[in-house]
């Protein structure tokens, strides 16, 4: 009961109030049936060591009675996950990738900058809640892991890199836990399961991850090429529009020159019309004078009117 790791987590824990998951690999838990391998502020968020009395917010115990699928694997390395989702509110407990219990919830995981995380007990020094077994790769996420994601973690095996696939939502890692001060006889050792088979499985998982990353890079390269093609097309379109704008400017200049010429021609015509008007007025005056002269001449010759040719009179 006096062997545990206890510390105050950083402020990232405030992100688990509505969506949370805690997962770990366990073996040979000791203590009572109500022990806990992990506790945040006691029963506020509690992961059971023997499959009984998990708790999230105000969910109550999950499950409340032994589950055979859990008790059957306690002596072996087995994977456990406890998740919370609040839309709708539901807490779920998984063992070796399978959901074995769930319960509805109405509240949230309370956060305070003074609340402790305890690994190896649900609270420091509790006489009935101490774990007393082996644990590794315990991680806490500000995310409701799906059944498929939990299944992938289990299938990847102990010491796999599967937990790192959710790094962006992880608020507490196993590596960070091991850096915290320890109480009692907490010891650290390499589990015997880390044999050649496990390493081969890890290499397979790593190879799969690398292949997935390669595929992502290939897809990104293809998208980049598509974008380059689109930019090239856009640039060509811009160039074409620029050429059209230049042509339109030239056409507009030609039209302006034509308008200027037409305006000049109109001005010249107006001047010509004015000149014709002046000439016409002069001719009228001359014709009037001529008629008056003819009349006077007719009077001096006897007063008889001389008939002028019709064309001249006009």
What order do the helices and strands follow? EEEEEHEEEEEHEHEHH
The order of strands across the largest sheet is: 5-4-3-9-1-12
Q: Ends: how far apart?
A: 143 Å
Instruction: Characterize the largest beta sheet: strand count, sense, and whether it forms a barrel.
Output: 6 strands, antiparallel
Radius of gyration: 50 Å
Low-confidence segments: 303-309
Derived structural class: alpha+beta
**pLDDT average, as an integer?**
84
Would you kindly provide a written description of the structure presented here, covering whatever features stand out?
With 314 residues, this protein is of the alpha+beta class. 41% of the residues lie in helices and 20% in strands. The protein is built from 5 helices and 12 strands. It has helices at residues 68-71, 147-156, 174-178, 196-300, 310-313, and strands at 4-7, 19-27, 36-40, 45-48, 55-56, 78-86, 89-95, 98-104, 117-119, 134-141, 170-172, 182-183. The chain has a 6-stranded antiparallel beta sheet, with no helix packed on it. The longest helix is centred in the C-terminal third of the chain and has 105 residues, at 196-300.
Kindly list the characteristics that best describe this protein.
20% strand; six-stranded antiparallel β-sheet; rod-shaped; alpha+beta; 314 residues
